[in-house]
Amino acid sequence: MATVSEPVKRPQIRQTQCFIGGKWVPSASGKTFPTYHPATEEVIADVAEGDADDVDAAVDAAREALEKGAWSKMDARDRGQLMYKLADLIEDEADELAALETLDNGKPIHDASTADIPLVVDCLRYYAGFADKIHGQTIPVRGNYFTYTRREPVGVVGQIIPWNFPALMVAWKWGPALAAGCTIVMKPAEQTPLSCLRMARLAQKAGIPDGVINVVPGYGPTAGASIVKHPGVDKVAFTGEMSTAQTIMRDASTTLKRLTFELGGKSPNIVFADADLDAAAKGAHFALYFNQGQCCCAGSRLFVEDSIHDEFVDRLAEMNTNRRVGDPFDPTTEQGPQVDQAQFDKILNYIEIGKSEGATCVTGGNRAGDRGYFVQPTLFTNVQDEMKIAREEIFGPVLSVLRFSDFDEIVKRANNTSFGLAAAVWSRDIGKAHRIAQKVRAGTVWVNCYDVFDAAAPFGGFKMSGLGRELGEAGLQAYTETKTVTVSLG
Ligand code: ADP
Fold first, then answer.
1. Catalytic residue among 18, 296, 334, 470
2. DSSP class of residue 112?
3. Angle between helices 117-128 and 166-180 (to 10 degrees)
4. Which own/partner pairs from 305-310 qualify as long-range (CB within 8 Å, at least 24 positions apart)?
């Protein structure tokens, strides 16, 4: 493992307060919480700890902006222009934002600057173009009437996001909400509030009117739950754990809020013997280890056809051995630390469970180094479907390899999970690949590739992996209400 260089390069941290109604304010209670650099476990900033009172103020500001302010009167095309401006400002500051992301989340600077931030910019631009293209319909009805529909903003939206792609999750949430004309109360994850606060400052600089975007940092059961329960919030968009979504669904039931969820997964990645094995091995490695394994769509159940199993495992093991784990600010680093102590402990516990369940640990199996939340790239073979490591989401650099030998068998086993976020298949037989794509119950299926994301391509889960879709035109649905207007023609 490369050592963590001292001192860690630090971008300037300029925003640590709540952003409400266009003002930067401390939390009503005056409380703050620390956010850490996961590579060194050092506190990097104390951030305002919002709670119910701050959420109340943020919802008031969002409601005012929705109903009375400049935003409510703005032409849709002008709204789009403000979004383009925000994307431009983020692009101008891309290096600094990427560094902020690496500091707060621990992800390698290479990933933050070549994946996260460019995807943020692309997503905002994609949705900016939609602002003036959200159309209703004219509908032929019986009788002497003229009927048309309007797609109006759903209203004040509460957006609660996780820590694995902090800035990108902001873009996925703000993009469709702003395009649709909604106003926002966002709670970033307590582990990674900094890039969201920086983006709020850039939104202000771009000229997005006060109150349209409000950010209340804080914890889930306090600030997060206050957003979910607030009668002034019309919709909640949440990305995180399935069990949190269940709590949110219960809490939202009193006010019957519209809900969209993007949750976890245990995605099957299926490699047939007739695949391009070089590409498949690189793809399988990337599918799991990218972002320290902290991806909801991670290809964590790798099914490899019997006849190529051993050779394929050798390739994976070699890649793991050569993987550069270390200082996330080193541009050559491929794997940084996990985000926090809780995730680190959970992953190491799953590794112990895998060993005790009888799986074979081929690489890794321990922490890396003695400071920071680094985990060795870990590879288990001899994994059986019923083992915990094959059923539960680990959210870390731990890959389970399972064998298969037959098409019908693999379809059944791939679907034998309560999750349904993503799947992938590797084969040169195009018909077989498409048949898998049709039969696997997952929101996204990649064929001979993995983790290909685009702002235009809908993403979300079947089954317990989610509710609704994000990205693409589909991602706009949840941010509009359809109103039907019927006019008597006399
Ligand atoms: P993770 O375990 O990956 O942190 P969580 O689902 O716990 O996933 O967190 C995702 C987001 O949901 C975070 O912003 C977190 O603060 C928030 N959250 C956690 N619990 C609740 C809750 N009860 N109500 C609303 N938001 C919550």
1. 296
2. I
3. 10
4. 305/271, 305/272, 305/273, 305/403, 305/404, 305/405, 306/273, 306/403, 306/404, 306/405, 307/273, 308/271, 308/273, 308/277, 309/401, 309/403
CA dist., res. 385 & res. 373, Å (int) = 29
Please compute Rg for the chain using Cα positions. 23
44 CB within 6 A, ligand 1: no
**Catalytic (active site) residue 182:** no
Report angle CA 182, 186, 297 to the nearest 5 degrees.
100
Side chain identity, residue 296: C
The CA distances from residue 252 to 228, 231, 245, 464, in Å, are: 6, 9, 10, 17
Question: What does the alpha-carbon distance between residue 55 and residue 196 come to, in Å, rounded to a whole number?
Answer: 16
Residue 441, judged by CB atoms within 10 A of its CB (0-12, 13-18, 19+), counts as: middle
**What's the pLDDT tens digit per position in 252-298?**
999 999 999 999 999 999 999 999 999 999 999 999 999 999 999 99
- Pairing outcome for strands 145-153 and 156-160: unpaired
Task: Please tell me the distance from the alpha carbon of residue 235 to that of residue 259, in angstroms, as a whole number.
Answer: 6
User: Is pLDDT above 50 for 3?
Assistant: no
pTM of the model: 0.97
Task: Quick: pLDDT tens for 10-54.
Answer: 799 999 999 999 999 999 999 999 999 999 999 999 999 999 999
**Ligand 1 and 162: CB distance under 6 A:** yes
Separation CA 359–CA 310 (nearest Å): 15
* 182: nearest Cα among 249, 233, 247, 116: 233
Which residues 6+ apart lie within 8 Å of 345 measured at CB?
Answer: none
Cβ of 220 closer than 6 Å to ligand 1, yes or no, is yes
- Map residue 487 onto helix, strand or coil: strand
How far is the C-alpha of 465 from the C-alpha of 421, rounded, in Å? 5
Q: Give the separation between CA 50 and CA 60, rounded to whole angstroms.
A: 15
The phi, psi pair for 153, rounded to 5°, reads: -60, 140
CA atoms within 13 A on the CB side of 395: 20
pLDDT tens-place string over residues 166-205: 999 999 999 999 999 999 999 999 999 999 999 999 999 9
Per DSSP, what are the bridge partners of residue 485?
Answer: 148
DSSP state string for 135-204: ---EE--SSSEEEEEEEEE--EEEEE--SSSHHHHHHHHHHHHHHHT-EEEEE--TT--HHHHHHHHHHH
Q: How far apart are CA 183 and CA 66, in angstroms?
A: 6
Mutation pick for ligand 1 pocket among 49, 55, 104, 160 (CB with most ligand atoms within 8 Å): 160
Q: Is 262 a catalytic residue?
A: yes
Residue 191, amino acid: Q
Give the residue whose CA is nearest to atom 18 of ligand 1: 220
CB neighbourhood size of 104 (10 A): 29
